[in-house]
Amino acid sequence: MNEAVPAGGFWLGARQRLSANPRALVALAVLVLLALLALCAPLLSPWSYDGIDWQHLARPPGLTAAHWLGTDRLGRDLLVRTLAGVRLSLLISALATALSLVIGLLWGAVAGFCGGRLDGWMMRFVDVLYALPYLFVVIILTTLFPRGRITVLLVALGAVGWLTTARMVRAQTRALRRREFIEAARAGGLSPGAILLRHVLPNVLGPVAVYATLIVPQMILSESFLSFLGLGVQEPHASLGNLIYGGTQEMESAPWMLLVPALFLVVLLTCLNLLGDALRDALDPRER
Amino acid sequence: MPSIHASAEGEGAQAPLLSLAGLSVGFDTRRGRVMAAAGITLGVHRGECLGVLGESGAGKTQVFLAVMGLLGPGGFATGSVRFAGQELLGQGAAALDRLRGAAIGMVFQDPMTSLTPHLPVGAQLVEVLRRHHAIDRREARARALALLTRVQLSDPARRFGQCPHELSGGMRQRVMIALALSGEPRLLIADEPTSSLDVTVQAQILALLKDLQRERGMAMVFISHDLGALAGVADRVAVLRAGSLIECGTATAVLKAPRELYTRSLVRQAALLAGGLPPQGVAGLTPPAHAGAALALEAVSVRFVVRRGALARALPLIALHEASFALAAGGSLGIVGESGGGKSTLARAALRLIEPCAGRVLWMGHDALALAPQELRRRRRDLQIIFQDPYGSLDPRMTVAEIVAEPLRVHAAGLDSLARRQAVHALLARLGLPGELAARYPHELSGGQCQRVALARAMILEPRVLVCDEPLSALDLPTQEQIVSLLVQLRQESGLGLLFISHNLALVQRLCERVLVLYLGRMMELAPSARLFAAARHPYSRELLAAIPSPDPQLQPQRLAHVALGEPPSPLTPPRGCVYHPRCPHAQALCRERVPAWEPAGEGVEVACHRWRELA
Amino acid sequence: MRKLALRRIAAMGVTLLVIVTLSFAIIRLAPGGPFDQEQALSPAVRANLERLYGLDQPLPVQYLHYLRALAHGDFGPSLRQRDFTVRELLAQGLPLSATLGLIALVAAVLGGVSAGIAAALWRTAGADVGFATASALAIALPGFVTGPLLALVFGLHLHWLPVAGWEADAPRYLVLPVLTLALPVAAYLARLTRASLLEVLRSPFVRSARARGLGAVRVLWRHALPPALLPVVSYLGPAAAYIITGSLVVESVFALPGSGRFLVQGAIDRDYPLVMGMVVVYAALTLLLNLAADLACGWLDPGSRHE
């Protein structure tokens, strides 16, 4: 380690590595475009997500047609509905991710840092919950409460997602606790709270940020999965999941009803995965 | 740079067994072509041992990996490598497979990672034996056991079925040597075989290698950065620096009268660290008149509870047993012993980073164990510590300036940010660090620079005592030298008390007035360092001293011939009576039954041994 | 080693108990009791029915009854499908689901691991990129997208395989479902194997083994593969769980009469006993498979064996 690396440190290096990765940049660009489209769709298109066009029932897509991506059996514009689905998916997954990250971070950091019996009980709690098959818990929760309520979905997704974050944060914190710079901080007279805030959390945030890139696509998948099965977002609201379900029913006669939302979902997930991969590579300075 | 041919001494008649001519080794990486070594021309003759000396990064290992055809991905070699007249570079995989192990064997540096972890040791041996000789399984097993016995592995029958992680470092290295020898090679390449081992085990392995070489008439290449290790085994020495061959000649010539400047500086540093020159000005440092003890321990014991599996019994591990000493203000005390001997535990207990289970710890006369948390944190400013791993002791997310300024934020809250910045820069300059490093992050600095930053952080509050826990073992020789001078300078300037922990006795002798010898967490001897080195009382102290490798090629081979055998026992099951008795050449019945008392032996020496009077 | 196993089994038992208790709580306490749907019943009739179903007992007693019933494999009657008990419904669908899951798991492991080994050994610039892209795509695509797409291509356009449905003793109906289910798992295993093998091949002990003159094939088979496959074995638990949950979608897409279909229908209908009964069974299965994978891992890894 005798070669001098240009100054500016860790985050700058990460940003440089990220910008040098062409796949990541493309993925980022596509994502931003999608998000913008999804947000602006209500303003740009004359159709709303549940507006029915009696003239054009189940029309295939065409650039010169009234509806660019076609309509469904009820005459609703598919492009608008799909973008609405993208919007909903992004919103739900972002919120659920944030929820699970915050809970998991606090839980794991306290457990890992305090150690001893508190750590034991906190993690045993996590272990028992963790062994519950995730999707089943979600299904149970959505069964119990009125279907379609967004808050229920959020709670179900986020409340189970925090477990993995907590485990990961705790493992990181425990490893950090034994590092010598923590000992040096203790020898320097810092109080445990100050050590947690100033030394432990900043060092844990790195891996947590990386982990967030994994969770977001997972949340989108879970939400789509539930909506596909009929347990998530309900008609007439559009989610990529229930759109794909509708498409499956009409597959033989109107394949575009399946292909359009499927394509959008695939693009969304792939971009998120690519970005996540690139972010992980950028934040881990070791050469591959 | 003239090419220095190996057989310059007029041996002419016999061609070398291995000869490198203009060998260059490089790697194709994402950032382009990186050369590890260039234009190496060397020869190794039958029956001789060539030592290859150089600092880490000098390319020594890569050159010989190229000889074996084992370069990593992207590696390439140009030039010529001839073994017994046959050109090796450019050979196909099958031909190289035949040569490897059978004609040329190799022993690697870190035996923990160089042995296949999931296969038992015996199975690995049998596999190699059957590869190179047409024998059946039973014959292979018998030969394997014979080999293990020959490499002085204790209890070979039991070890046969064990996996590498169940053996100690020294045992694993012996297994590696046995593996390398099973094909009965004519040339053995040993790449830093002793660098990761304790000093006593190191001496044993060196003696073993020398023996084996003589017995089998093998040629040997011994790669190391440790001059002392080379001096004992090498007939000729080649010196590498930054990928080039600097000098080559007989061991006596190169190590006692080196031609090149670089070699001379290496030799001088090694001699310094081995106690060849008298300590510089430290022993003469007289403590201030009203010297109360800055740090004192009274019968401090530390116990850990080890659980093998959650439902198993909790076993107590006595890491430290009734340690007592007093460090006067401005004084210096060295703590030596093998790894696992309790030195780090002692350091941490002294600073109350670990809670002792018994005894008293006094800081400047105050009972540290009775302090309330807030008071404790306040008083910590008087005793600071630096650690072994230079990178691990610095927070990777903070800049150098932030790291060094942090103690000021905690203890001198009255200072504003400008005053803090000035203090930090002043101290960095004093420790020889350029100002622009203040904005850098630890991973951008070298090991030596990181250690200085750690030192700056420790010194910024002007503590009374500095505890150093093996701060130099991860650094290169020249860097070690710099840090040592820095410590000496700091002590002279500010009357800093020093508690220096190391397994390197020579270093301790240079820095410390008194030395405490620990074995398995028990005190063996406490003496002024001059006294200890001249005439140690305790048999363990003598064993440690005898194991220090001397860089004198005329002395070291004989010293190796008298090395004793023995491994440190597990701290979970300490021997009864005197814990050292299983390894002690002078042990008697009394030693096996009763723990020796800690008693003064005159001239400032204290020792715990039943027989110290007779063994004087 | 045995202590480790006992500890894990005990942990599994606790978790199962939690799930069962949760199940009981939900069934008894959730809104929409068994008799609220129909026309209002007279109090006397209601009291009789409650006594018949044991609903007039105090809760702890009901809980014990429930536990005892579960131990006998009796999950109670289905709420919405009045003619069947949960157990009967399970028995109808479980064999097919189990077959589907098992075949998918085996296919995923064999396919994924071989692909991973091949990808690690034959590295060219094109192969690396191709592998990364293909595996990323396969992992990212959810079952409810690949399933219909495969059905569209192979069923509706090429007419090679049936689009949906099921006929006993007609394995061609299982081809697309197995493929859909196994693809993401195989892709993940391939990536895992490749990365793990590459790392092991770089490690010092592999170099050391080659330095002793052992051939490349032998070193790969005996020295490199066992540690490289360790992460794969430890992933088998989650892989099995993934396949179990994935089967819900696959059965729905391909109209297979498996038990997953009942679960989904039950969730939509709010048929609590059915849902909870199925959850208990599925959960027990998942836990068992995870336990098996954990134990296998512990047995294979010599380091942890002697902890």
What does this structure look like?
The complex is a heterotrimer of chains A (288), B (616) and C (307). By secondary structure, chain A is mostly helical. Helix content of chain A is 73%, strand content 0%. Chain A contains ten helices and no strands. Chain A is elongated. The N terminus of chain A is likely disordered. Chain B has an eight-stranded mixed β-sheet with strand order 16-17-18-13-19-20-22-21, with helices on both faces. A six-stranded mixed β-sheet of chain B has the order 6-7-8-3-9-10, sandwiched between helices. In chain B, helix 4 packs across helix 5, helix 8 crosses helix 20 and helix 14 crosses helix 15. The radius of gyration of chain C is 24 Å and the shape is flat.
- How many alpha or pi helices of chain B? 22
Distance between the termini of chain B: 54 Å
Q: What's the mean pLDDT score of chain B?
A: 84
Helix content of chain A: over 70%
Number of DSSP E strands of chain B: 22
Overall pLDDT confidence of chain A: 78
- Strand portion of chain B, in percent? 15-25%
The most extensive interface, with participating residues per chain, is:
A-C, 38 and 43 residues
Instruction: Give the helices and strands of chain A as they follow along the chain.
Output: HHHHHHHHHH
Short description:
With 288 residues, chain A is mainly α. Helices cover 73% and strands 0% of the residues of chain A.
